[in-house]
Amino acid sequence: MKEREIGSLPGIPFLLCVLVLAIVSAWMFVTGIGPDPDNAGVNSLAKVFGGIVLATLSFLSLIGLYKVEPNQSVVLSLFGKYVGTVKANGLRWNNPFYAKRKVSQRVRNFESGKLKVNELDGSPIEIASVIVWQVVDASEAVYNVDEYETFVHIQSESALRAMATSYPYDQHEEGQLSLRSHATEIGEHLKKELQERLADAGVQVLDARISHLAYAPEIAQAMLQRQQANAIIAARTRIVAGAVGMVEMALQELQKNGVVTLDEERKAQMVSNLLVVLCGERSTQPIVNAGSLY
Q: What residues form the membrane-spanning segments (predicted)?
């Protein structure tokens, strides 16, 4: 049900009218039941009846008054039929028989609880998110779903579970999206999926971000060791690549400048020694040969 905005009347003039009607009805009622030798009993009864009618009108007019705060809408219905939505701020007045439902259109946010799900590779993880949302269609929020706030919370957890199972925790291949390394892309995916789920509830998702991400406690230690092993392998790979380049450069410089001429066996020995020096974790202790080269 799409929102339809309708007008309303200023409430201050009606409030003044209600006060005037209340004063007049009180005067008529008091004068009607009091002693009045100059008037017949019929006139006194008419005053009492008129006072009751004016008091009833005053009460009904008072029911028609309601307050609309900034960033708030009031959904009006008449005996179950949607009439329209009022967004004008201040004290307003409409038909006293209209049922009124106030809906806040302020920006809201909440953090979901920590969910335990299996990521794409099947490893159990803990994940939570922060959702920023706002009601943009008050009539849809009231009539399309039951308790739209609860609906937003439940659908947010459902969308988070679905998103978490679509990506691995860590990046295993170049260019692969993962939960840990691509927070912006993952947040956009979560926002898009959540918006599709909440569109019929008149809710707009302004932002969605992962606020907590970790392996489940039962595998956290094993996964930490795997991450450390991957880091060591990556570091060693870079060190070896650099060492090979330095050895190649050293051999080229020696050959170009004619410093020394080495046969293949000595080249192999030199390469081995340089790789040990460059790739070793500890500093080497050189042995100086004071005699023959061979």
A: 12-33, 45-66
